[in-house]
Amino acid sequence: MKTVFVTVGTTSFDELIENITTLDAVQALKARGYERLVLQVGRGSLLPTADSCPLIRVEAFRFKDSIAEDMKQADLVISHAGAGSCLEALGAGKPLLVVVNDKLMNNHQLELAEQLHTDSHLLYCTCSTLTETLKTMDLAILQPFLPGQPKNFANFLDRALGVR
Known about the structure:
Largest sheet: 6 strands, parallel
Low-confidence stretches: none
CATH architecture: 3-Layer(aba) Sandwich
CATH topology: Rossmann fold
Radius of gyration: 15 Å
CATH superfamily: Glycogen Phosphorylase B
Helix content: 25-40%
Order of helices and strands: EHHEEHEHEHEHH
Shape: globular
Number of helices: 7
Structural class: alpha/beta
Strand content: 15-25%
């Protein structure tokens, strides 16, 4: 069953959960052949139920000891732009769509997403452009992010965030 895994990490990002479960977003996913939507909602106030979305099977949870199995089973990962979540999805070799929380102050998430997008490792959008991105995204353009080089990732983060 073709699956989308959505993660907000340990944060609260209700706007992402709201937007990915709208009828328009679900129709866009369904049009691409996705049949299952697994939502990790963190500390958010929303916890969608199995019957909350027409057309697609929905599962939701707040936290698990590990989301590695959820990522492994996913055909697409949609994530907030936290560095840990991005690294985990990229390390799992999964196509990644990052949704930047543009309401955060000092939007460092945007810088990280832009750099990883420039290097063709992921696609990114905001909540307001999520549905359109789901309709038009081309996952075939994505290039693998080579795992096993934490120092390279640390250096990349420093450059992306303007530390060096």
